[in-house]
Design goal:
This protein has a domain at 374-482. 49% of the residues lie in helices and 8% in strands. The chain has helices at 2-20, 23-27, 35-41, 57-76, 80-97, 104-116, 143-162, 166-169, 174-179, 187-192, 196-212, 223-244, 250-258, 264-284, 316-337, 353-357, 414-424, 432-445; strands at residues 374-384, 389-391, 397-398, 452-463, 474-482. The chain has a five-stranded antiparallel sheet. Helix 1 runs antiparallel to helix 4 and helix 6 runs antiparallel to helix 7 (143-162). The longest helix is centred in the middle third of the chain and has 22 residues, at 223-244. The N and C termini lie far apart (55 Å). The relative contact order is 0.12. Residues 1-266 form the HTTM-like domain. It is found in: Endomembrane system. The chain crosses the membrane at residues 57-78, 108-126, 138-162, 174-193, 213-236. InterPro entries: HTTM-like, Sporulation_signal_mat.
């Protein structure tokens, strides 16, 4: 759990770093989603966001710095529970500020922090552990650990349940269609794409891995062995995804989520392998070695920690907390199974307020129920006063309708890729003029750029077809704005 704490904190810092490169574009009133548009079009009244206090980039920058500070505190294990709560609040606030760039990994990262509030993941390998004797046991069972394990299982089981299209269950063509999407195709995917039978076999393997592998988490015997198998298989699974599909931080977040499942024997083995190297590094830093034992996981228990005597009535508080957590576990399971189970068991809207308020709402519909077929690429076509056409999506190059070699490489990061995906949907047509005007404003900020009369957001739609057929790209103008 301590290893997971550090991994989650590192991912939060990485996420903040990537998001900060689009501070103005995604989180200010000068960007693609001003506050008044957010409240009018994409806001849930149950949600909260500290980032909504201002549309100025300076305020957003301060909030980013505060969130980074809390994440560093969590990484070091300094006042761990407080840092976990503050990191969770800032993450929820940030995600609520712009839901149009959210992806499935954000749900998982948010839930890891939520359950982490109740986990003892600051007990070892932390600043808080300095001066404390080693735990009597490195095995811990509570409602919080049940919630964490159930949460990991739900991620995979529910995405398998939602993948009910024939391309997943019978045809085995889902990976073929996924790799047909140039928007997310990575170099490893290009190597795999010509091998249809291998992709068909991998499709079935993916489906049944997600559906059946979580059973290993609940086998009451050989727990260390089965959980190690679970972690190794899913590490390999997500490495494969990261090499073939552009999924942003999704695979890194999943890596972090699996750290808490590593059993003590595995960590002891790692410590024996890495211990000498750690000691050599500590020797170079002079004096650090004296402080290191409080931060590392001892191989053997050196002391027994005895809690202070508590008043008889004090025991009711842990019991109440455990009861509440088990209720939350049931609520989370119900939320996930909603839409999968029979309609008569669907969660009613009045009961959903908690999920929206505390952002325990989640949906694991990755490439479900079927793989998206409307592939293509963008051209931001600026019509200049001199009659020339400039592509603002490619730094003002002359417009070309020829398909680029790598469509995925056109996206600055996965946040923009997700934004461009949401931009296509008819239900999100309200997004289009704000992006169009944002691109126009950026263009005219540079005095060397010729003035534009009109800007067209063009999508070159290329529908994915079976059997390696190639469709003719169709030019679709999603939005036009005059300057």
């Amino acid at each position: 759990m301590a290893l997971m704490r550090m991994a989650v904190a590192a991912v939060v810092l990485l996420d903040l770093g990537i998001r900060s490169t689009d501070l103005e574009a995604h989180y200010t009133n000068l960007g693609v989603l001003p506050l008044h548009v957010l409240f009018e079009r994409a806001w849930n009244p149950y949600e909260f966001s500290i980032h909504n206090m201002s549309g100025l980039w300076q305020v957003q920058a301060l909030l980013f710095l505060a969130a980074a500070g809390f994440a560093v505190g969590l990484l070091l294990g300094w006042r761990t529970r407080l840092m976990t709560v503050l990191s969770w609040v800032m993450l929820v606030s940030l995600q609520n500020r712009n839901p149009m760039i959210a992806q499935g990994g954000d749900d998982l990262l948010r839930m890891l922090l939520f359950w982490g509030i109740f986990l003892p993941w600051g007990r070892v390998w932390s600043k808080d552990a300095e001066g404390q004797p080693a735990p009597a046991s490195y095995t811990h069972f509570s409602a919080a650990t049940v919630a964490y394990v159930v949460q990991i299982a739900l991620v995979y089981v529910c995405t398998a349940f939602l993948k009910n299209a024939p391309e997943w269950t019978t045809e085995g063509t889902a990976i073929y269609y996924a790799l047909s999407l140039d928007q997310v195709l990575m170099p490893g995917g290009r190597l795999l794409y010509p091998h249809f039978e291998l992709m068909r076999w991998l499709t079935h393997l993916t489906y049944y891995t997600e559906l059946l592998l979580p059973v290993l988490l609940f086998i009451p015997v050989g727990t260390a062995f089965f959980r190690t198998v679970f972690v190794v298989v899913l590490f390999s699974f997500h490495i494969g995804i990261s090499l073939t599909l552009f999924v942003g931080l999704f695979f890194v977040i999943n890596f972090a989520s699996l750290m808490g499942l590593l059993p003590a024997p595995v960590l002891n083995w790692l410590e024996r392998k890495l211990g000498p190297a750690t000691q050599r590094c500590a020797g170079y830093l002079g004096g650090l070695r004296q402080r290191l034992p409080a931060w590392q996981l001892p191989l053997q228990v050196q002391a027994t920690w005895r809690p202070r005597a508590r008043k008889p009535g004090y025991a009711l508080l842990p019991m109440l907390r455990e009861t509440v957590l088990y209720v939350l576990v049931g609520y989370t399971i119900w939320w996930n199974l909603d839409g999968i189970i029979a309609p008569k068991y669907t969660m009613s809207e009045p009961l959903r307020w908690f999920g929206y308020q505390f952002r325990t709402d989640q949906h694991w519909g990755m490439f479900a129920p079927a793989v998206f077929k409307d592939d293509g690429w963008y051209i931001i076509e600026g019509n200049a006063a001199n009659g020339r056409l400039y592509d603002l999506y490619r730094n003002g190059r002359p417009v070309s309708y020829e398909k680029p070699y790598s469509v995925m490489a056109l996206h600055k990061n996965d946040r923009w890729r997700k934004y461009s995906e949401n931009y296509l949907f008819v239900d999100n047509s309200w997004m289009r003029p704000y992006y169009c005007n944002y691109m126009l404003r950026l263009w005219h900020l540079n005095p060397r750029n010729p003035p534009l009369k009109r800007l067209d957001v063009v999508y070159m739609k290329e529908v994915s077809l079976p059997n390696y057929q190639v469709s003719e790209p169709k030019r679709e103008v999603l939005c036009s704005c005059e300057y």
